[in-house]
């Protein structure tokens, strides 16, 4: 189990007891280090740290990956989402009835479990 640091640029500035680390006589508040984090895709120890990151780097990140400059449109060509039902007939519950559902037309099309799990598999065309 490897440890990683919270990516919050000001994490060490939040003075909580669990952030105090170091040898006696040279203890400091330090960036939190954990095996996993709850926020921001497992990168931040708190919403505060996630927000600090966005406040500092958000504009740069948006410009880097592409700023939305015009409205996107939901049409029947890009409204497909994957769905499934729960089957409680056996012991416990299993997923069943994998399908595409069109969020606009409500049309349904069958889907295999493998296709459901394949994040790149979609019926959507365009964005
Ligand atoms: Zn943090």
Structure description:
The chain is an alpha+beta fold. 19% of the residues lie in helices and 22% in strands. It contains 2 helices and 7 strands; from the N terminus they run ββββαβββα. It has helices at residues 47-65, 113-117; strands spanning 4-5, 20-21, 28-29, 33-34, 80-87, 94-102, 108-110. The chain has a 3-stranded antiparallel beta sheet, with no helix packed on it. A two-stranded antiparallel ribbon has the order 1-4. Strand 6 (94-102) and strand 7 (108-110) form a beta hairpin. It is flat. The model has no long low-confidence stretch (mean pLDDT 95). The structure holds zinc ion. Zinc ion binds next to loops. The site of zinc ion (ZN) has 8 residues, from loops.
Structural class by secondary-structure content: alpha+beta
Return residue spans where pLDDT drops below 50 for at least 5 consecutive residues.
none
The radius of gyration computed from the alpha-carbon positions, rounded to a whole number of angstroms, is 22 Å
Topology, number of strands:
7
Roughly how many Å apart are the termini? 38 Å
Tally of helical runs: 2
Helix content: 10-25%
Calculate the mean pLDDT score and round it: 95
Please write the string of helix (H) and strand (E) elements.
EEEEHEEEH
Provide the β-strand percentage band.
15-25%
Write the layout of secondary structure elements.
Blueprint: E1 4-5, E2 20-21, E3 28-29, E4 33-34, H1 47-65, E5 80-87, E6 94-102, E7 108-110, H2 113-117
Antiparallel strand pairs: 1-4, 2-3, 5-6, 6-7
The protein binds zinc ion.
The site of zinc ion has 8 residues, from loops.
